Target: Fatty acid hydroxylase superfamily protein
Amino acid sequence: MTDTTQNPESARWHYHPDGPVSLNPLFKWPPRPAEVLKWYSGAWLQITALTLCLALAVTAYAFFFPPLESMQSFAPGWMFRIWLLNMVPQILVAGGLHWWLYMRKGQGMYKKFDRRDLTRNNGTFTFRNQVLDNIWWTLGSAMTVATVYQWIIYWAMANGYVPTITWSGAPVWFVVWMVFIPMWSGLHFYWVHRLEHHPKLYKYLHAVHHRNVNIGPWSGISNHWYENLLYFTTYFIHLIVPSHPLHVLFHASFQQISPVLSHSGFEKLKAGDTDAARAGDFFHQLHHRYFECNYGTSEIPFDKWFGTYHDGSAEATTRTRAYKKQMYT
Ligand SMILES: [Zn+2]
Ligand SMILES: [Zn+2]
Model:
């Protein structure tokens, strides 16, 4: 925790990371190659949302993915399997993290951003309970829309309606596209999310997600149907950019599982006495507390470019509150 006399924002949090919230140094000028290397090795060479999602996608592809040829026509067998490939990891990761952090309280309050526990007995939430509300919107709404979109993509791939690659046919593109998928996801997310915050659209599309001012693992993709219809259009890039089914699996895993970690409410997951994995993301935690800031991710600094970047300081909170007021008057 930081000294609250230096940054009054610290007093508003249980755990407040030191210094400004970091952004991808790739976009800094003049170039900082050492910082960039550190950023990407931090993301790809330890347990993070990226590496976990890639591992889940590879496992799904190797052991459970139906043969592409079987998807040429819509048939219940493979369609049910694709639904399970969405549901099972979501339940395991969100359910597991929720159990460990919030029920078992496996690491107590260690690196937990917000002091408060998740909300119970509150009429804002479906079933008057934040966790049950979030589970319903995730497993009921988000998983349904994500699955239907994936059915369309796999069916189009299986029939050769869209450009599809193989590992042996295009190994370099295979890897390059895999690395760029998170960046595409961040770019798509920023613009969709900004649209959802338009005062005329917000209450129809995005208010369900923002019931969660204090967030937990199940809040990640706890979205209204209309928001999910927009949010998961990110997958349709695979109808245009030459892809392999593993790209779609990784994209889906990243789009669905990484928000579970980023909304977990804890910056790090502890194993024994050491920080074993990166989890929460203060950048997005600030978005849930103050709304009209940090619309994107730290991967592409759109918020910095467009003046909505909250760096975690009290001055940024004052500025965000003024901006919100002006948006709604
Ligand atoms: Zn939002
Ligand atoms: Zn969120």
